[in-house]
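Folds abound. A case:
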Amino acid sequence: MIKKAHLLFALLTLLPFPAFARDCAEKDLNVAMTSPLTNMPVLDQDGSGSCYGHSAATLINYELLANGGAPFTGIHPLYGAWVEKYVNSTIKSDGLDSGEAVDVISSLKKKGYCSEIEVEKRLKKLKVDCAKGTTDAQLLHILELIYDNYSSFSFNPYANAVESAKKARASKKDYHITDCQIESVAAELRLKDMINIPATALLSKLFEGCKHEDLKVGEPKEEHIGSDEHMLNNVDNALNRDKPAEISICSKMFTDPNFKLNGVLPSVNRGSLLNIPSGCGGHSVVITGRKNVGGTCKYLLRNSWGSLWKADTATECACILNTGKYLDVCPDASIVREYLGCWFKEDILGKNIFGTTSF
């Protein structure tokens, strides 16, 4: 039998909460020149599906820098995702697509990490000729394309893998990478006899012998159960302690302001199949700011889709100008060097969050 108090709580959490129901004191972790975020550029996950690794790296590197760590000696997002999907997993994944930030953090605390600078050096070994300017996430995407299209049963496995990968790129409209990049990476893989190896196993070879450091950060707190307001309160608690918060959301909210979770009882996991509607587009991002605008609380959402990303449903975005100055609202894109995120109203954000993680 359900206790009356529990029943009352369940009924109350079904009711819509007011647009401004909590403390909404201004907090922007991007403002101070000494903020760890000033040494953490916005990255692009490209087609790697490693948003959770990028979010985990943001939380961890923020902690390391806040405690005196040197810039770019922390966690590389793809390395973190790889440790979770390949090193710390009993079932070895071929790729890095989909995961949870809290699992990346837990895996790195168990296994340690290779510094961001060292990871960059090792990935650079595959960036030759046309691929010299390739980002790390683009490289991973190319590795996955080549392996997915490799078949030892074809007459010429190498040539078939390259041509099929290029066709797959065109069909997926992956305009952020080129045929020439695919050809250059494939040629280097052939030279190193790695053309038929899954991306994660290939990364394992590249990272061999890397000096590992112990990850000295606190235990992350993760939650998937509670009302919309409870999820936002979790974010507030992190911001009030001058820490960013990771949230798992439906990325459909970037194009549809009316999109939301199905709204089952808060006692049910918000990330369960019962709660996730079709077209959700599960995604991991980081909240780095909060402000009160006309009685409505807004949150600054930092994405991993590149430094020029702006959401269709957001009217305000924060940026770094060409002059190096930070603005929480940027009026003119022509003078923007890098967007740091976009502001979302609490009601839009709250109804799309199905998990939070913070230190």
